[in-house]
Amino acid sequence: MTEAQSDTPSEKKKYRYTKQLIRIALDNGYTNADIAVKAGLSPKSIGQVSRWRSGESLATERQMRALVKEFGHLLKRKIEHLLYGFDENGNLIFSSIEGEVVFKHTIKLTRQQKSVSLYRIMLFKNSDKFTLIYQDRLGLEAGTSLKYLGNSDNEDANWLTKEIVLPDTPNAVVTSLEKYSKQLVSKAHYNDETNLKINEAILAFKARQALMKIGCPSEDIHSIDLQTQTSNNIQTQ
Fold first, then answer.
1. What pTM, to 2 d.p., does this model score?
2. Dihedrals φ, ψ of 221, to 5°?
3. Which CATH number fits domain 3-78: 2.30.30, 1.10.150, 3.90.1310, 1.10.260?
């Protein structure tokens, strides 16, 4: 009886956190050959493990069962994230989100002649779904004085979640970030406008770079034709 025939439908199901689990195993001293054996494959199946590690393919839940048993507690810490904010009555509300942090961007502006982190954006990916989290520095709503800003040794405790967006495509991710950047610029104080416009460009680049790295590029990225050495209006020397 072959492996495929012996597996139940549930055991054939793809394990969506394959890449994260493989990397945790490698960080804990496993080799590609070790992981292949744990997955029930030949020690020579290191190419398959490499594809799992890079995210090119997913293992089945059966193949990852031994690693989940050994490293599942570490994986849970890696993919579960706690968020908090205030409701309309000023009460604290807490929520959790599962997924890989695709990128994180903090916007720093000048307050009382100091560069201070005031806004943060995070993009999560869980399976084929994206989640954008927009956050303000704790205490920002109290005014511009630095003494009101949160300053915890736990960095995540300094950030209040203000908005959660669920874009359905990479292009929708880019569109949401562009909208957010323009909103910040429109409400900025005069001295902040230049810094925010610079951040707008940095955020646009970081988002597209992060999406490319996970194999989900936005449609507005153009390839450079090495034959003509031109791409749209960009000329190369």
1. 0.70
2. -90, 125
3. 1.10.260
